[in-house]
Amino acid sequence: MFANLAKLFRYRVLIQTLVVRDLKARYRGSFLGFFWSFFNPLLLLLIYTFVFTKVIPGSHQKDMEPYALFMFCGILPWTWFSSSLLESSNTLIAGGNLIKKVLFPAEVLPIVTVLANMVHFFLGLPIVAAFLIYYQRPLDPLELLWLPVIIFVQLFFTTGLAIFVSAVTVHFRDLKDLLGNLLTLWFFATPIIYPMYVPPEEYRWMLNFNPFTHLAISYQEVLFFPGPFGHWKWLLALGVGSIFVFLAGYFVFDRLRDSFAEEV
Known about the structure:
Oligomer: single chain
Number of strands: 0
Radius of gyration: 19 Å
Structural class: mainly alpha
């Protein structure tokens, strides 16, 4: 397993090429093309702003104002996470013609999916920054230094799950349909549309077992809530756990690798 894992660095040019191809293919034929990567998060944030200021104002606590921006700080990384898993569940099946080539490294496909969605996440960050400036939200430069750490932890965690999901779905095709429902449940079990202190205290321990809880809170504390970044211990613990998730996901992938060509 570790020998195959070490070879991934040699495939960096291939991964980069496939990421660029994926990004180009996503908007091929559209009038605005790649600019949709900026417009989609902008439109989403404008819709949230309209709904929570005009349609249902006063539906949240004062410390969460502007509520649309609070939500967006969690939804943007969640979109990267959920889209990566959903697309990875079909990536080996869709890339069957590549899988059947003896020298092609199959693990590249789910990794490309995660990285392509990460690019869309990065393109959404300037939208967050623009609205933070517009609403005059204070940002601590020292806290912002934690942002690359949060992104790095999410990258490892997401890639590990994406590699696992892509391998298992080849043998259990029902997982593709089940995954969408599981991610919906996971979304509502994560403090993205509500802060951590809203659920009753007797249920908060369950939220703490949710890995994405600590990613969402970390993004919210760094980008939205003023004050020191107090969730750093949880984040570092999740970082260590994410390495194990990545290695476990790759272990399962490596064990099933030889059966991919027959199953796809």
